[in-house]
Amino acid sequence: MSESNEIDLHSLHSVVLRETENDSIQEIDPNFYRNLSDFLGNLKKQEFDGIESKIKEALIEMTSELTSLLLRIRLEKIINSDGINFTNLLDEEKFILDAEEQKRERTEMVLSATINGKSKFLESISHNHKIKPVVLRILKEVDQIVGADLEKYGPFKPEDIATLPYENAQALITKQAATKIHLED
């Protein structure tokens, strides 16, 4: 990567190539994904006509494909190996892997409870998941409902924001009456 930490297609290609040629996760700039995001954001803001517009779109597509490839390669290395050095992982990659670890823990928890005859525990996690709060943006009018937690919710109008139990939220999402809102820290 260049000294200024600026991203271009050539430097991105070099990072991806270096990552594919090595079995271990390579060290890259801690701000890599943010710099890449800035590069793509600035590129997308630029307006061109004719052939320059087509070149810009091709550049955006190639950059996006290389970024996706790099992320998949790096995550696959850590998921498929026991001894990878976590110090070379970027914060964004650690964020993704945290969810993978939680998935493994939950799988083991359900399997263990099932094998060990802990049906009350399974009932408890099932119930807690059904009533887990989910924040939604309402897309269509929704009459008042009784939630999985036996509380009343609504009625709702389009563009309302609501927090509903998971089970009810999923039903509205399936009916395309709402969409999940991801609240960022």
Give keywords:
185 residues; mainly alpha; Ribosomal Protein L9, domain 1; 3 domains; three-stranded antiparallel sheet; two-stranded antiparallel sheet; 6 helices; flat
Describe, in plain words, how this protein is organized in 3D.
The strands form two sheets. A three-stranded antiparallel sheet has the order 4-1-5, with helices on one face. A two-stranded antiparallel sheet has the order 2-3. A hairpin with a 5-residue loop joins strand 2 and strand 3. It is flat. The chain starts with 8 loop residues before the first helix and ends in a 5-residue tail after the last strand. The chain folds into three domains: 81 residues, no CATH class; 37 residues; 55 residues, Ribosomal Protein L9, domain 1 (3-Layer(aba) Sandwich), CATH 3.40.5. Helix 1 packs parallel to helix 3 and helix 2 packs antiparallel against helix 3. Helix content is 55%, strand content 10%. With 185 residues, it is mostly helical.
